[in-house]
Amino acid sequence: MSRISSLEVQLSNVKSLLRTMCDAVNTGLVTLIQHFEHPNPNRLIKIVVLDSEIDNLERAIDTSILQILATQQPLGYELRLAYACAKIAHHIERIGDAVESLARQLVNGDIPDQKEIFLEMLNDSKDLFERSYTAMFEGDLSLIQEIHLLDDKVDFKQRELYHIAKKILKKESKGNIDKALRIISMSAKIEKIADLCCNWAEQIDLAENGMVRRKIQKRKYRLVFMDNVGGIIASIAASFLYQSVKDIVDLSVVASQPIKTNNILNFTNLLSEYEITPQIFPIARITSMNWNKSLMLIILGDFELPKEELEVVPYKTVQIIWNEINFEPDEIETNPKKFKEFVNSLLIRTNHLAQIIARTQEQNE
Predict the structure, then answer these.
(1) What are the E-state strand segments in 301-359?
(2) Domain segments of the chain as ranges
(3) Where is the PhoU domain (predicted)?
(4) Which one, 78, 236, 296, 321, has least CB within 10 Å?
């Protein structure tokens, strides 16, 4: 009967397997980028072979981690590391699957006309991959502290490609439909690679720092307030909610019309009576919004989200309509009675919403 290796040796073996797995996936990513720069379908074939190797490595890692848990009963850092490696191996395997799927699509068709945008997405995703790789195997955790901000660049490019695909679909021919669906499919796979690299970084952070001292702040979900009056009413509504939910979710404001001359700071004295401090939120145009991570859309008054935007809002995003929050900013500013009615309605709505968000946070924890 062979002697059981020490915990340190077993963990080192797991990390070695994981590094080999990551190297194989990185080779696939580099090959995809090279194909976009200098098309050569023959080089894509090796990605399919690499995917089988990646799957085998994931199974070997799972077996090794199971042996560690069964024979060593690790605690503290060692337990976190073993758990993180199992999760990371799964994320890397899924990245490998996405890379292989992209390779198959490229082997069976030409490179899309939007080559430069795809290349930017791939290079940004490779940057995310390399940051997580370096943090994992060289211990430089500074590279992953703001990794979610870098991931937003990939999300923005995916949205750009989606709108391009929609324009192509309007031409209504079989060739255009296939072209548009290909753009949507390929961009979604690259965006998934970027997301999985962020998941990888979070597991590294968890292993190194534990739950209490984590350095990476998980990207918070967003509440999006929308109105038809230049974002002023939406900004006031968001200000009512800000203090109670700012640590749980991000708040965004969207307007459908050009920004008016009104400024939320004009309402400082009126709001101070209710112990509300006006918050200055950047007011976004609908067409510039990235709806990823939007937990709720709060629609004020008679605002309507255009159909083409509804199509890109994630299906899990909740839409809440507050029809009664529908006043002209000038009217509120000059009519105290109207403003009081507005505040009373808003207090009821925002207090209820804050309770829902707090309960959701408790369930997630």
Answers:
(1) 318-322
(2) 7-209, 221-364
(3) 18-105, 119-204
(4) 321
